[in-house]
Design goal:
By secondary structure, the protein is mainly beta. It is globular, with a radius of gyration of 23 Å. The longest helix has 6 residues. It has two helices and five strands. It has a domain of 97 residues. Strands 1, 2, 3, 4 and 5 form a five-stranded antiparallel beta sheet that branches.
Amino acid sequence: MHADADAFATSDVSLLVDAEDEDGTTFSAADGGRMRFAAESFLSFGAFEECETAEPTALLAGTVLAAETRVNELTRVPFHVVDVTLLGFGATVCLPVDEHPACPSPGNVVAGEFYLVASADALWSVQPEPQKRRPRWRRWLGR
């Protein structure tokens, strides 16, 4: 959790994995060789795997739009539900309260590795309602 995009951009969390050139030299942040993850980014790990080994996980960073704390009805464990925007689309992420005691605020940046789940109901709810067709009245002429 970061206060804003600027705080995220200067944190170690925004650094991508260490890179090495052909001779094995590791690039460091000091020499400007390491790339940074943007505050609104999404990188699916499954996109780089074969279908049989792909897992539904992604590295994402998103700006918080809204957040609230809820309690699991079965386990009674609290968690934060956070709506974020990233790369032009929105996502909802869940954060454990024991790791993030304060509920995120709009403008914060949430970043990390997340397990991906799609909600078919949500996909359908954003689809426009089909337009109702006007009934066709046929005129039958007796001949």
